[in-house]
Write a structure and sequence with these properties.
single chain, mainly beta, Lipocalin, 5% helix, globular
Length: 202
């Protein structure tokens, strides 16, 4: 079962891009996430009628991949909360206040894996997600999307993943009631990851 099957996206989405490549059969090794070719984003419902999407532009991360013993694999990610952007300056400013990410007091959002499981090209990564000093465990299903040697000789691997969380579990409680029922911002937020990682030579 692939990532798109898990998220119930249309089957046609699988064929949107050219087929992925496979440069190596075993991707085991130590990796650094390439921030210039990685997307870490989120989406939430606004006024219960539309979806607002955003992303983080400043982050760094490492990963250890062990295909033979997946439990030995690990991920460590640090995101600068102030790098949040939704394409609208006023909204971005609000997201940086204590109503949401409180960037003056909590500079970093972090994810540290606690368990990694693998089934073929599918990886379930469970870890501690910390936002505004609050830590909760989340599991993110990822699909390995290929490997390639780039023009500079780097071995790259790709992964795509997504999961949904309730932002109030991390103390992001801001909201406003609508006259017609419902609330201004959904509690449920979808997190999306499109990761390119470069293997480090020993």
């Amino acid at each position: 079962m692939g990532l798109f099957s898990r998220s119930s996206a249309p089957a046609a989405a699988v064929d949107t891009f050219d087929p992925a490549t496979t440069a190596v059969d075993d991707i085991s090794g130590n990796y650094v996430i390439d921030p210039t070719h990685t997307y870490i984003g989120f989406s939430a419902r606004h006024a219960m009628v539309t979806t607002v999407r955003g992303k983080f532009e400043d982050f760094a991360g490492t990963a250890v991949i062990d295909t033979a013993t997946p439990a030995n694999s690990s991920v460590n990610l640090t995101i600068k909360a102030a790098s949040v952007t939704t394409g609208q300056e006023q909204r971005d400013g609000h997201l940086k206040t204590p109503d949401f990410f409180d960037v003056a007091n909590y500079e970093d959002i972090t994810f540290v894996s606690t368990k990694v499981e693998r089934d073929g090209d599918e990886w379930d990564i469970t870890g501690d997600l910390t936002i505004n000093g609050n830590t909760q465990s989340v599991t993110i299903p990822f699909e390995q999307t290929g490997s390639a040697k780039d023009p500079y000789g780097n071995l790259r691997v790709g992964f795509e993943g997504e999961t949904s969380i309730k932002r109030t579990d991390w103390g992001l409680n801001f909201n406003a009631a609508l006259e017609t029922g419902g609330v201004l911002v959904s509690d449920k937020v979808k997190l999306s990851f499109d990761v390119s990682a470069i293997r480090q030579e020993a």
